[in-house]
């Protein structure tokens, strides 16, 4: 008996072979039926290597659910750092997304997002891949959650293609589609159902956060020594934990985070973990386990790792927008410009009024200039370089009124004391101690004339 050599010697499935060789069925229908059979068999053999093989074969035959199931099977291996499984997951979610499944596009974005404690590697390919996947889910499938997550990725400080303006636009779009948490701390979303995939929830419930992926429990946060020093101010020895409950607590955390005029990747992740518990009051019992990034474990107390708990009252005392502002923090130009000393001081003073944290960031900039000019001041030149800076500073401070004026005088006085302490020249205290409003000493009648002497 002769064999028909026009048929392929091997075929992925019997139905496909029949369609090709004998015309018993149309090719697309046969492939679909075979993909369904492969998927059904994989479900029966779930948890085995054979099931993974069957799911991948079904995915190759354009079975959307098989693609998503195969991608999900990669999670354990990815957790243990298997790069091949990571690429397989990208491929499977991507194929399902290309086949028109909006959920798969979101899942692909989640897999490629380099945000959170267990985010993908922070490389340009993953940032771009997350943006592309979320954008498809947001724009082609109108999934509000995807728009919100796209906002996060576009706005993230570590994204090499960061676009904060586009991020704000997508966040607003998610809000308009009914995704509550993209609207800030408002308890009600705009009217309208948003979309079928993510409908607006009643105001009495807490919707799934669009701002960050689900963290593991317990979640481990890494902080540097400077931030740790700030957080230790909140340590409760009775509980052996850090408890965030008041606006003052938030100010301490905020001060530590932006003390260096930036939000690092680790600090960004810590903010997200706090926001996760803020948005879900029930999650406040899940601690954030704090670890220091230094060379030794400096966060142990009585043999225990230190935890952060977000108390339910924290939500009542701190607005969601204040947390969001930390994520969107833009570094301030703190460079000193000798050609425009009054302008530089004005910029620094205005920046210091933004928050206690920024005041602490500004102070050493002024102190450094004080130290430089104090070193050039002597009895012979009547301390003119030092006095000139003092008077320029006070002239600018006097442009502010009320509490701002008092806060800036305190800041300037403290910065001068720090700068003088680092100078080899002894500067008489009467040249600057009158600046401190606590002393109740009025400034000289004519500050401008002091520089003329």
TrEMBL record:
Key word Metal-binding present: no
Domain of life, per lineage: Bacteria
The keyword Signal is assigned to this record: yes
Entry-linked InterPro entries: HcpB-like, TPR-like_helical_dom_sf
Residue ranges, annotated region (Disordered): 181-217
Signal peptide, first to last residue: 1-31
Keywords recorded for this protein, A-Z: Signal
Ranges of Low complexity composition bias in the record: 181-210
The protein's name in its UniProt record: Sel1 repeat family protein
């Amino acid at each position: 008996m002769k064999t028909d050599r026009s048929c392929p010697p091997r075929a992925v499935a019997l139905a496909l072979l029949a369609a090709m060789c004998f015309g018993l069925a149309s090719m697309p229908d046969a492939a679909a039926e075979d993909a369904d059979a492969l998927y059904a068999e994989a479900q029966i053999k779930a948890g085995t290597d054979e099931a993974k093989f069957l799911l991948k074969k079904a995915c190759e035959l354009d079975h959307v659910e098989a693609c998503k199931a195969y991608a999900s099977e990669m999670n354990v291996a990815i957790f243990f750092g298997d790069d091949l499984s990571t690429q397989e997951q990208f491929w499977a979610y991507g194929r399902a997304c290309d086949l028109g499944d909006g959920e798969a596009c979101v899942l692909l974005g989640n897999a490629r997002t380099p945000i959170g404690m267990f985010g993908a590697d922070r490389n340009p390919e993953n940032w771009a891949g997350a943006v592309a996947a979320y954008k498809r889910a947001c724009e082609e499938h109108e999934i509000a959650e995807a728009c919100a997550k796209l906002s996060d990725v576009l706005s993230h400080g570590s994204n090499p293609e960061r676009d904060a303006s586009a991020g704000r636009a997508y966040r607003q779009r998610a809000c308009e589609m009914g995704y509550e948490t993209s609207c800030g701390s408002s308890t009600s979303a705009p009217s309208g159902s948003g979309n079928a995939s993510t409908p607006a929830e009643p105001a009495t419930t807490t919707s799934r956060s669009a701002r960050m992926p689900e963290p593991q429990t317990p979640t481990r946060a890494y902080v540097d020594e400077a931030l740790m020093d700030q957080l230790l101010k909140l340590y409760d020895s009775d509980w052996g934990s850090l408890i965030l409950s008041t606006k003052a607590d938030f100010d301490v955390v905020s001060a530590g985070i932006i003390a260096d005029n930036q939000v690092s990747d680790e600090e960004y992740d810590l903010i997200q973990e706090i926001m996760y518990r803020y948005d879900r009051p029930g999650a406040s019992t899940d601690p954030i386990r704090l670890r220091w990034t230094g060379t030794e474990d400096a966060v142990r107390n009585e043999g225990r790792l230190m935890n952060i708990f977000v108390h339910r009252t924290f939500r009542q005392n701190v607005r969601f927008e204040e947390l969001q502002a930390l994520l969107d923090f833009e570094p301030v130009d703190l460079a000193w410009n000798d050609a425009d000393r009054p302008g530089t001081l004005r910029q620094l003073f205005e920046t210091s009024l933004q928050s206690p944290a920024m005041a602490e960031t500004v102070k050493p900039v002024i102190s450094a200039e004080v130290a430089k000019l104090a070193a050039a001041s002597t009895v012979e030149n009547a301390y003119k370089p030092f006095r000139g800076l003092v008077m320029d500073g006070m002239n600018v401070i006097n442009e502010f009124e009320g509490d701002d004026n008092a806060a800036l005088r305190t800041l300037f006085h403290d910065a001068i004391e720090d700068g003088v302490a680092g100078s080899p020249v002894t500067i008489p205290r009467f040249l600057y101690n009158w600046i401190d409003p606590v002393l109740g000493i009025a400034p000289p009648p004519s500050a401008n004339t002091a520089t003329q002497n």
